[in-house]
Design brief:
Blueprint (H helix, E strand, L loop, with lengths): L1 H9 L3 H7 L2 H4 L4 H7 L2 H4 L7 H14 L2 H20 L1
Length: about 90
């Protein structure tokens, strides 16, 4: 493909090469061809997932593991450090 492009660009008779390419007959968009390649089962899948329930479980795990205390301590220490260095 690159050789063809290089040949087309470096050729002295560029017009004859471009006219040899029949865009009207070769460049067509057939929706039926694309439709035959799409797997409709994949597009129409339903997911039964409880997003809010998953967020709640994650929050409960975050609190029960003690990570919320690490977050709060980090925010307080970071704010203190910023206020000391910003002065």
């Amino acid at each position: 493909m690159l050789d063809l492009a290089h040949h087309l660009v470096t050729s002295t008779d560029l017009a004859s090469h471009i006219s040899a390419i029949d865009f009207a007959n070769n460049f067509h968009f057939n929706l039926a061809d694309i439709h035959s390649h799409i797997n409709m089962d994949l597009i129409a899948q339903e997911f039964k997932q409880d997003v809010m329930g998953d967020i709640g479980k994650g929050w409960n795990r975050f609190v029960s593991s003690g990570q919320i205390w690490a977050l709060l301590i980090g925010v307080v220490v970071g704010y203190l450090f910023r206020s000391i260095t910003n002065a």
